[in-house]
Amino acid sequence: MRIAMIGSGYVGLVSGACLADFGHVVTCVDRDPGRIAMLERGEIPIFEPGLEDIVESNVRQKRLFFTTDLPKAVAGADAVFIAVGTPSRRGDGHADLSYVYGAAAEIAKALTGYAVIVTKSTVPVGTGDEVERIVRELRPELQFDVVSNPEFLREGAAISDFKRPDRIVVGAETEDARDVMSEIYRPLFLNQSPILFTGRRTSELTKYAANAFLATKITFINEIADLCEKVGANVQDVARGIGLDKRIGSKFLHAGPGYGGSCFPKDTLALVRTAQEAGAPVQIVETVERVNKARKKAMAERVLAACGGSVQDKKVALLGLAFKPNTDDMRDAPSIDIVEALTKAGAKVHGFDPEAMEQAKLIMKDIAYEQDPYDCAAGADVLVIVTEWDAFRALDMLRIKETMKSPVVVDLRNIYRPQDMKRRGFTYTSIGRP
């Protein structure tokens, strides 16, 4: 099938490349000529394991193309995916849908025959209705359908998630639309990936509900971690004890500095606003959003406590800046709040991340960036582990201890064992463990 992907950011690029790998002919569109030029040169503007290889392979086989020319990409397409950004709107927290609606208007003008317009972007309930209204108003004679097909991609594992999904959710209102979407995802039927057809509004809400639930699990275990510290329990054992219950599951039960990234913060807030306007407030999600925001800010207090209450003129070494490993995404990363609080308290912050340094430099300009973990730790009064990159799990801690000014470690991801760190002579603080 011929597919146009409007938006070549994280979701659009991953989705477009994977659909091309299924055998479809995909054209990814972006307004940014610099981004398109990079992609045409074979340069990937984001870090995602496996993405570079899949893009290169499908470009070579002439199934994947990049352009700034939306009308050319859309003309004759069987399906047009909208995968543009929906950031939180300043002032009220609602999802900013201006890019979605702008894309819908451009698509309407460019379509040359029947096509399915698919919202891949995360959008509030009712967005598909408005997309349909926009297209119908501009092209009343056009035959088309609007479908909701939310993405469920984890940064760092997006290729696997797209090709071996837990489920594919499709909100379609007509049999024709369901047939087109079934054909697009037919290669996944071989893997017996379940495809769930729903109404369009149900599909839109499913995405928000999924992210809100996962954010709730993270926030729940973080609060249990705080309780563990007060009563002398071990949060990792608690998480395992409840996670073995199949009704609960073990995923997203890792205590840490709070969630960040491109999805959970904005999606939980957007769901809260949508629910408030609908007169059915989601009070659990409201609390989750508030508690997580406070938690990220509170992490700096743990560093201050480990340093005797003050970091004035002390070197603080941060390992990990991205919001999670295997990505360079800095959006709403806990490191941002931690650095802000520490620099305000007078610390000299140094940071290292295997992939996110260039993105971090655009946001955090008041810290020094180092080339590796050992340079970062050298002369530090305290070492703070913020992101659980695999490269940090087997550091030569004795070498680090020898170069640090004080052997103090604050492990916000619990990647080391307290007894091992004590044996090596560190003053060690972790999350939710005695």
Structural class comes to alpha/beta
CATH class of the largest domain: Alpha Beta
Number of strands: 14
End-to-end CA span: 57 Å
* Helix count from the secondary structure assignment: 18
CATH homolog superfamily of the largest domain: NAD(P)-binding Rossmann-like Domain
CATH architecture verdict of the largest domain:
3-Layer(aba) Sandwich
Cα Rg? 23 Å
CATH topology descriptor of the largest domain: Rossmann fold
Strand content: 5-15%
In a nutshell, what does this entry contain?
The chain is of the alpha/beta class. The protein contains 18 helices and 14 strands. α18 links the parallel β13 and β14.
How would you describe what is shown here?
- It is built from 18 helices and 14 strands.
- The longest helix has 32 residues.
- It is α/β, with parallel strands linked by helices and 434 residues long.
- It has a six-stranded parallel beta sheet with strand order 3-2-1-4-5-6, sandwiched between helices. The chain has a six-stranded parallel beta sheet with strand order 11-10-9-12-13-14. It has a two-stranded parallel sheet with strand order 7-8.
- The chain has three domains: 197 residues, 3-Layer(aba) Sandwich (Rossmann fold), CATH 3.40.50.720; 82 residues, N-(1-d-carboxylethyl)-l-norvaline Dehydrogenase, domain 2; 133 residues, NAD(P)-binding Rossmann-like Domain (Rossmann fold).
- Helix 10 runs parallel beside helix 13.
- 45% of the residues lie in helices and 14% in strands.
